[in-house]
Amino acid sequence: MHRTFVAGCFLSAASLCAQLVGPGQAVPQTGKLPVVFVNGYETDCGNASFKGTFGIADQVLQANGQASLFFNYCTVPGHPTIEDMGAAFGLFLAGLQYDDGQPVDLVDSVAYSMGGLIVRSYLSGKQSGVAVFNPPVITHLRKLVFLATPNSGTGITDVLPFSTTQLDELTSGSRFLFDLATWNQGTDDLRGLDAIAVIGNGGTGNATTDGFDDGVVALTSASLGFYLPGRTRVVPFCHVDGGGLISLAGYCGFDALGIAVFRSATQDPAHIVTSFLDGTTDWQSLGQAAEQNPLLSANGGLYVTVRSADDASLSTDSINAASSSGKTKTLNLPSHDVAYTDMFPAGSLMLTAVAGSVDLTQPWMLPAGTVAPIVIKAGPSILRAYSAASGVFPLIVAPGMIVAVYGDQLAAGTAAATAIPLPLQLSDAQVLLGGTALSLYYASPSHINAVISESASGLMQLGVQNMSGSRTINVLVEPAAPSIFTQDASGTGAAAALNAGTGALVSPQSPVLAGDYVELFLTGLGTTTAGHGLDFADQQPTVTISGQDCPVTYAGRAPGWPGLDQINCVVPSGLPSDDSAPLIVTSGAQTSNTVTIAIR
Fold first, then answer.
1. Residue 519 lies in a domain
2. Which of 4, 23, 139, 426 measures 20 to 30 Å from 544, CA to CA?
3. Are 299 and 293 in contact (CB under 8 A)?
């Protein structure tokens, strides 16, 4: 009965029924995921409303067959930090129910301005205090749209005649923003969720440079370039509607249109949102890609801190950047902690830092279209910790995985690769996870292969320690993160696979046939249980070849090779002859890199 009413409601005039699900109300099942909207900073929480922030977005989504909900951060009591609001957002998601009493397991979200930081804080599990995180195991989120989110802050807060805890965290160069930008392997991968950003360049230019901001947030700050390329659309809108304080201060025109205020389904921001949530490609041709914007495609931003060789934070006096083209700039340094700039020529640069008696220089390759968080230090540095088989997205590792740690000055010399990892130091290097030394396969100044312990779980600290110092980053350990080895070590070519019957390496010259058993070599299947002389994967994976199931007969450790996994599966019948048939392994919610295999 209720569902019939809802269907009729979507077909009737918008005024005949409410488009917005009220607080505490059951969520109607419409056939599409509900969408949770999150508001931005409110100067007057007493008057905060969905319509005031998002206009007729609920009506637009209703016409598109979607229910809208509103997480109004102003309902969080007291004077909450963004961390507090992120935690409250998680409770809000966990408490949602459909009209039949079933929990709402998955939603999409559209977050405006500070609301995007609330969502990011929730995903990372950001806690009060410096660099403390407890990410939720289940996120309840599928797709995210960020509208004008100040991912790297805004300088406008400095000119406001008042201050709050939230504004302090929103200010460019805040420790909160640096921590959020570096919580997982020195970056934020948004937990691998499907996300885009809609950002504005309709400001007057008084905030930064003409065409480089929405009156409040610079393009580099609002961009999702730190997450993935091709996920940011630039539209000629301002942060808010004109006529208010932003216009009086000269940052947006009095006739400006706010980027989050939906006025019709055809307006670019609204159309981008509905297209992306629906899974169509319209959004990719609306507005302008960040990579095509003349300013964003040529410039990046910098967030820089200085640490000692032993990885302790240093009070910083100054940081200068010099580009290969000759431009120099002294970065803004509000609190002797995080230095920043919104706009600097992308490409090769040299950073020079002074922290007390410590003088450091460090080269860097600045990417265009985003803000790069950088740690300047002597001694070892870590750039990434990938699966040794391939660089996979999102940035996760698994118990028992062979992980490749990349960086600089990781080891004093190169140690020969070992056939079986030993719990010994190779050269002078040691890799630690949660303070416990890991077994190593290989060590060099720029690359170390280590085996994640089977007991690893959740967010953990991975560090490299040697005679020149130490460096530690966070890594997120998931139950499984399958990653397939390839014959050319590219992570995308022919699979490292054997024909179990003949022992031959599978190739176009030696393909497998229907009914053949394939031995596939990978890493990241997670924990195992011993039995019958083998170590079986606790979480059973699946394998597909050209989209068809390859029934698995064994999944677990390759005998005698710690960290190396093996899957045996039976080639299905009916596959077309193909020298490069796509092969994928899935374990739980995680999917491997796509590799190829020769089939006849």
1. yes
2. 139
3. no
